[in-house]
Amino acid sequence: MDGVIGFFEQLGPNIEILGARMPQILEGVQVTVLAAAFGGLLALVISFVFGIAQTVKLGAVRIIARIFVEFFRGTSLVVQLFWLAFVLPQLPYPFGWQLAPLAIGVLALGLNYGAYGAEVVRGSIGSVPKGQYEALSALSLSPVRGMFRVIIPQAWALMIPSLSNLWIQLLKGSAIVSTVLLYDLYFRVEQVRDQTGTWFAFLFALVAYYLVAWVIVIIMNALEVRAKHKIGRGPALSDSLGTLLRPPGGKNVARGAMV
Questions:
Q1: Quick check: is 171 in a domain?
Q2: Second label for 186, Cα 20 to 30 Å away, from 43, 65, 101, 234?
Q3: What residue numbers bound the domain in which 128 lies?
Q4: What is the pLDDT of residue 256?
Q5: CATH of the domain at 171
Q6: Within a domain: residue 70?
């Protein structure tokens, strides 16, 4: 209650402080966007590599992929960050790497959320009807070619909603990277809170995170519409542009088109 009273009593000075710190806060937004974008791309690559690896016939590959997934799903993202930031540089050559804070954040986010994404990829591949696998034999397609020409396009349409949720979770999880001195949005806003003693700066952070998440939703909705149209299960992207701007939490456009 004291924080609310203090906010209104010091409204003018607090807004002045926020305005003075706005360049630094916008730099923090940029760092957060970079961490979420590159972390998301790395997570996507890891998701496909280890998700597909868990479906191959070679047992050794499946075991290695499973160990990787369970390790990074079963350990804390905070611990992974600290390990990359403070333990990795202490290892003997050639394993002791000193990484930049942004690289540490991207790597930790990519590894952690990529492990979760690998399960999404594996489950989506397993959800493709068995008849599609039988068609590969009928068409005399090799397992690799059949996987990428027939199975993956159908599984991709299935996995996009779950990958979209993971990307948004990654964005929100990126606030943790401030623990390794990465000057992201959360770090900059926390500085303003320390200076003003009130919570008002976090209102800006809420709006900023929401807007970035909205952009992610638009991108993933567009990818889902395009993926389903390519396999004949929905309208073309040009016919769905008006519904792609639904905010986070709104009805998924591609699923709605299927009803």
A1: yes
A2: 43
A3: 2-199
A4: 39
A5: 1.10.3720.10
A6: yes
Q: Is there a contact between 173 and 131 (Cβ–Cβ < 8 Å)? A: no
The three-state secondary structure class of 144 is helix
- Determine if the peptide bond prior to 94 is cis (ω within 30°): yes
C-alpha gyration radius of the chain: 22
**DSSP states along 34-57:** HHHHHHHHHHHHHHHHHHHHTTSS
Please tell me the total count of domains within the chain. 1
> Is 1 strand, coil or helix?
coil
223-247 pLDDT tens trace: 888 888 887 777 777 666 666 666 6
Q: Is residue 244 part of a domain?
A: no
Are 47 and 78 in contact, with CB atoms under 8 Å apart?
A: no
C-beta atoms surrounding 125 within 10 Å: 20
pLDDT confidence of 3, banded at 50, 70, 90? Answer: very low
157 in a structural domain:
yes
CA 73 to chain centre: 14
